[in-house]
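QUALITY CONTROL LOG
STEP: pairwise intake check
CHECKER ROLE: data steward
CRITERIA: each record must contain a sequence immediately followed by its structure tokens, with no blank fields

ENTRY 1 OF 2
RESULT FIELD BELOW
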Amino acid sequence: MKKIVFLFLFISNAAFANDGPLEEYISVASKTVKPQSHVGKSVDVLDQSIFEEYKPLMLTDAIHNVPGVYVKRINGMSGLTTIRIRGARSIDTKLLYNGLPLQDPSDPQASSNPLIGDLMGASIAKIEILKGASSSTWGSEAIGGVLNVIPQKGGKDELIIRGEFGSNETFQESIAIRREDFFIEASKLDSSGFDAHDNYDSFSSNGSVVFLLGNGLSVEGDYLLGKTKAGLNDSPVIFGGVVFPDIDDPDDRREYDLLHGGLTIRIDLTDSLVFKNKIGATDSDRRFVFLPDSEFDFYSDGTYHGNDFIVEDQITVRHNWSLSTTIGHQYERQWYELETLGEADQADAYSNDFFIEETIDIDNLHIILAGRENTHERAKSRETYDISAIWRTKISDKFSSSLHSHYGTSFRQPSLYELYGAFLTGFGRFEIGNSGLSPERGQTFDIGCDISMGDTINTGITFFQSSIRNKIDFAGFSYSNVEGTDSTNGVELFYEQYLADGLSFRTSYTFTEGDNLVDVPESLWDASLRYAKGKWVANVRTRYVSDHRILVFNLDDFTVGNINEEVRFTVDATVAYKIRPNLEVYVRAENLLSEDYNEGGYRTPGARVYGGVTWTI
């Protein structure tokens, strides 16, 4: 860590001044907010217009046409949703809510997998998606990339009422209040699912408030509340050499309660010195029930409790227009408890991270250097570093390009369950944790070029490579670090064009190949055609997913087997019309061609149609 600090201080004395214009800002690529055109890392932004056009029921439904990002939802609304970035595992995608980690320490890998699929899309302002290793900025788990979900905030005084009804007896109702300095919303979602016992019942509420107190002092707070009950199907299996998809089960179900709160205090001490304090807390309670089966007489009823508490302080010094330095410290404490069949298990641990970041702007060259040292109470410490750069050139009034690149290292500390977990049964407690685990280690490199041709065409290509070693896996009777390195590489392309008045087109393609890839298609192609003019907004979205390998439990030998999931092509569409400036109606169709396919071995519903209305007062 000392070497990294000395390097940054040396560069601080060598930078030149630059007072170029600033544009659109993003917050996921750095510890400070920056213009997207000044960031060399691969970042895609899904802004408010995407949510207004797609009318997504769930947050993850909005993630479409983003190269390198693959979203999978099994068992309809009721099942698990995962997000994989550039072939990495779903646990390598770090989730932030308004810049603070949102994860569940009671999950076996302390990831966001148990909760991300239940987040609704109506109250989201935008999603920032950072692709590539980012542990120097965001700490543990940021191996594949980072999603920063930014909720809606205060603004024009208004009351927003929404209602939606559609296939599978799906109802959604929400009401939101917006004032100058706060926003609050409550939503209810119910669906019977496409099987007899796939019912889904969810309530969520979120809010944010901002106080500008004068003398450079501002305070921002937000909260997120969720309560979900959902029926589950029996998992797909291999039996007698034949693959059987999921089966409707009246007894299997899950329950999930989530409460998250965040507080950010910013003090502009001088024009060149800014202090920021962040506090975040997450409390989660989950329950999974698998009741007796008539043939196997199997029973499981487990509850999982998790708490995550974070305090982060940082100070940013702007030396001049070309150079700034940010240094900070993060404290995190996690706790979990598992209860099942009369047995209980719990553990907790804390970590301290120290980070530094240097930003250098020299004319059209923008560089970000970052480093972090993680010290964990129970596991080995880990250092990471990161460098990214972007060089922009304007060849003519109608032609410009940018060359961008990023190299970063990353880590994932072992979760509490991996360190101290146990398999609880009616016969007692069986230790499967390993307190001697070391952190997983990863690295990524990408390089690409984006080209703009006036106001009509934007296109780009990015090559990426990533690797992970020292992976933590369950082997034998406990968790252990696995020798070897898994590597992934590929290419991302996008092309967008404004075709005519109100009409535009965008397409993206991702090719991914690597070692031991699971649930990652080699080819992923998305396209969308959008029309927005006057009172009408419409779009058609297509997706092609190549065949790919998934894992299914094999009852013949009680191992996990590999099967091939077939190619699929799906079409979605949304049409919205404003009857009045404050009254909009819309129709959304999913899987319009009623493609028959499986997702993760689970059956999927055919064509679905939903209609809704938004009334703003």
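ENTRY 2 OF 2
RESULT FIELD BELOW
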Amino acid sequence: MTQTLEPLVHLDRTPQERMDAWLREFESALAADDIARATNAFLTDSYWRDLTAFTWNIKTVEGHEQIADMLTARLADTRPSNFTTTEPATDDGDGVVSAFIAFETAVGRCEGHLRIRRDDAGTDGGGRDAGEDKAWTLLTTMQELKGHEESAGPNRPLGAVHGSDPDTRSWAEKKADEELSLGRSAQPYVLVIGGGQGGIALGARLRQLGVPSVVVDRHDRPGDQWRKRYKSLCLHDPVWYDHLPYLPFPDNWPVFAPKDKIGDWLEFYTKVMEVPYWSKTTCLSAEYDEAESRWTVEVDRDGERLTLHPTQLVLATGMSGKPAVPSVPGQDVFAGEQHHSSAHPGPDGYLGKKVVVIGSNNSAHDICKALVDNGVDATMVQRSSTHIVKSDSLRSIALGSLYSEEAVASGMTTKKADLTFASLPYRIMHQFQIPVYDQIRQQDKEFYERLEAAGFELDFGDDDSGLFMKYLRRGSGYYIDVGASELIADGTIKLVHGQLDHLTENSVVLADGTEIDADVVVYATGYGSMNGWAADLMGQEVADRVGKVWGLGSETTKDPGPWEGEQRNMWKPTQQPGLWFHGGNLHQSRHYSLYLALQLKARYEGIPTPVYGLADVHHLS
């Protein structure tokens, strides 16, 4: 029989007492399998974001109906218990109290974040009085599987052999034997295609979890994905946002690391974390065997053809797909050099030439700045408006409370920052971002006025929510300014507007007839969906079965609906069995690699993983 909760608010209760009371009642409802009672612990407009703990998925449920449906499907198997706060609850103002929480399920140990606030909507028909505390946002995340904990901390390996051991091989000999057998006498359970920061972070987690795996990449060395980009490239996100799992950057690491330094760190990290990594390896084809529930993957490893049979295949080729190069008349007659921004070598060799860069987002700005800094004539062709935010403003206003030296000094850890950031459901995240970018726009008013006076077309996103929402929705359309914007404002970087129409032997011609002399054309025109890589490797049928990768379904520019609630196909099961996508920036590679690794580990160990809310496919690319 459904019970009603006791009133959960007294005016003299502290934030901790309010949080403890809510957790106590919520756990009681769950233990009693009283889904109606547990659901009524949430506000009508509420959000429960689950990262693997309940749903074996990356899934957000919104409102009473969806929360009740998820609990109906998953409560009996999940068996959550022992809810508690991990540090004192805080008063966030406007009646909101928040806390980091911990709990257990039948198979895992979990952590999360909870915001409660008083319900001012009156009685709800179930006998609950107005003014009671109800959940507004709840984040639940799996952190480890019981009985399958990482070999870390108190579980770290001894290393030395104390006493007799029938296996007399040294650590180095064991490692060499493992490398020799991998892919031959021993098959990887997980094959990770792509050895940038995403593949390496996931490889490190799988290694610590004891999941047989290998990361493969076509480059000569780990980190070459960064080393081989244009020489001026630096990270635009600050160091506190960019740590990899297990090994944070040292305290003397630059705030914005140069690309070659990042490349060296990734190579060092791969070696120290003992990530099984095959360089100079190209995947030729992949086919899924429905009967055997495994893949057959043909690879070329530095000239040696090998056949692998992984059960799970992860495409960790970044958040972007294949370079998108527009096809326009005249490309075959243009006498100069043409290349996509991903293949741009840098400014060396272009002195005395006229370079036209098609596009106006991050890569276009970086390339133009490096060109003019080295005395090269550069023209940027802006085809549509671009969101610009100064790096310093992004650091201090948008990221400072979570990812900064000041945040670290105040007790903010990377883990707590990640949980806090993840605790904001995507449905309402823009509401938190709009005032941030309003503040930035006001602080940097003169900067934006100079840009607009130079003719640059600015935007702050369809709803003025700024950089992060543009990134999550479409992965493009912005530039984090590290100096190029001032060069546009003062005319050092030439700026023209329009759509590319055709090329002549020595010029770029826009749709309005504007003709720009050119010796070199750089297409800073973005990338396609990640499922383009799947089409190349597995065929169009598999790519279409998976559908578009990235985006939220926000019905904003380049992010068509319907609403998805989470990133399409990222870090979670897809409609193609055994196929996963992993990528994003360094922050996402660090944080979400945990949940992907735990999903893969559970399957490797034979732990049941019934997926709740497997996403439908609405768009093919």
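INTAKE CHECK: passed for both entries
DESCRIPTIVE NOTE, ENTRY 2: The longest helix spans residues 586-604.
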